[in-house]
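Quick one, tokens below. Sequence please?
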């Protein structure tokens, strides 16, 4: 599943590890960099562009990892990995083309929730390459984190051409320290990224390491005509996909989506949860499995999110009603409407209950059938036309806008 909505936080750490080791130096450095470049090439399915190969070699990833991280345990959870106690595993994670969780919260029921991570380098390189940067280009980065991407950009363009914004003051200090350790000094400012940074504009590119539901008008205004905006995309339904837009002369921008790029949001919309049930439900049955719209097919999830904006979902694996094995909750973020889809033992089909003025499951089911009718398209068949006052999503061309199921 994509990472849940959460505030982007990372642990502050000294650039000198608790074991006295200075990250990125010594026998691990060169070999780790070459392993990482090889893995990124395999993941991309093509050679890594020379400028980003050079950046990966010059920017050791381990510099940006805290001494304690969390790695997948192979059973759907995570286990702690401490550099002092598990040095080889820690170093392997640092030089692997995989995301590394740097902060983990454990819910009262034992569920482990990642709230911060360092992205897989291949994902970062793919997005950076989409910027199509030329020498001397000026870039605004939204979401510094611990500074890894800012370091790659600074190596490519020079410190003076990179401005990076981070809302978390502790992270700003962490990023500055990490960058200083590598001899880099791009501008890292403690600021909300949504308004951009007009004093440094206009920019040749805007790059975000946090997902958005709409492209802020300030980013469009601060990007030069012909410049690019690359940002992970999310909807209330899921966070999956990356959009690359090109700024038009008139002030708007057009772009297309690609798969992948599951990032935490620019603004936390909160966790999904059941609403109040204070009216008789409209009960029906459906033959469409709830896993078809909220399972592991993120192509379907992307389409549902595009066609049913403002509706989120959560799985309940231990529902109260007797005989209900699993329940899918749907909730309108604005409030007022919600729905449940129950998987019952020994039942054919699924029981649906809908509350409020909107029939949320009907809308989701309509969106899924629209997606199925069009050949179950992947995100790369979708595009966007963005303007300062809003956006339109479309399939294949702007002539085929995504229908809003509520309409």
């Amino acid at each position: 599943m994509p990472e849940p909505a959460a505030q982007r936080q990372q642990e502050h750490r000294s650039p000198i590890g608790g074991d006295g080791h200075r990250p990125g130096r010594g026998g691990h450095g060169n070999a780790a960099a070459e392993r990482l470049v090889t893995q990124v090439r395999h993941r991309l399915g093509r050679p890594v562009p020379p400028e980003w190969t050079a950046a990966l070699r010059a920017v050791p990833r381990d510099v940006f990892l805290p001494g304690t991280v969390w790695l997948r345990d192979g059973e759907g959870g995570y286990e702690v990995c401490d550099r002092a106690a598990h040095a080889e595993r820690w170093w392997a994670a640092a030089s692997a083309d995989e995301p590394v969780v740097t902060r983990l919260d454990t819910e009262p029921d034992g569920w482990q929730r990642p709230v911060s991570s360092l992205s897989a380098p291949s994902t970062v390189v793919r997005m950076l390459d989409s910027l199509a940067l030329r020498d001397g280009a000026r870039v605004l980065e939204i979401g510094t984190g611990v500074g890894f991407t800012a370091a790659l950009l600074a190596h490519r363009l020079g410190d003076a051409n990179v401005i990076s914004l981070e809302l978390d003051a502790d992270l700003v200090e962490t990023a500055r320290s990490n960058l200083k350790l590598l001899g880099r000094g791009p501008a890292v400012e403690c600021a909300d990224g949504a308004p951009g940074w007009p004093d440094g504009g206009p920019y040749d590119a805007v790059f975000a390491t946090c997902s958005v539901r709409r492209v802020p008008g300030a980013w469009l205004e601060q990007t030069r005509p012909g410049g690019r905006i690359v940002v992970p995309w999310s909807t209330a339904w899921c966070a999956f996909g990356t959009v690359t837009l090109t700024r038009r002369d008139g002030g708007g921008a057009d772009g297309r989506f690609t798969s992948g790029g599951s990032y935490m949001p620019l603004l936390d919309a909160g966790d999904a949860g059941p609403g109040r049930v204070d009216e008789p439900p409209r009960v029906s049955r459906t033959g469409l499995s709830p896993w078809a719209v909220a399972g592991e097919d993120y192509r379907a999830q992307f389409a549902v999110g595009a066609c049913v904006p403002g509706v989120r979902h959560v799985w309940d694996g231990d529902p109260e009603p007797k005989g209900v094995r699993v329940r899918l909750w749907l909730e309108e973020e604005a409030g007022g409407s919600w729905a449940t889809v129950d998987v019952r033992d020994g039942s054919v089909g699924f029981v649906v209950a809908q509350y409020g003025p909107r029939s949320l499951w009907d809308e989701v089911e309509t969106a899924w059938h629209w997606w199925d009718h069009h050949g179950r398209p992947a995100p790369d068949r979708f595009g966007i036309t963005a303007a300062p006052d809003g956006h339109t999503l479309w399939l294949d061309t702007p002539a085929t806008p995504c229908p809003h199921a509520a309409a």
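Residues 28-44 form the longest helix (17 residues). The longest strand covers residues 223-234.
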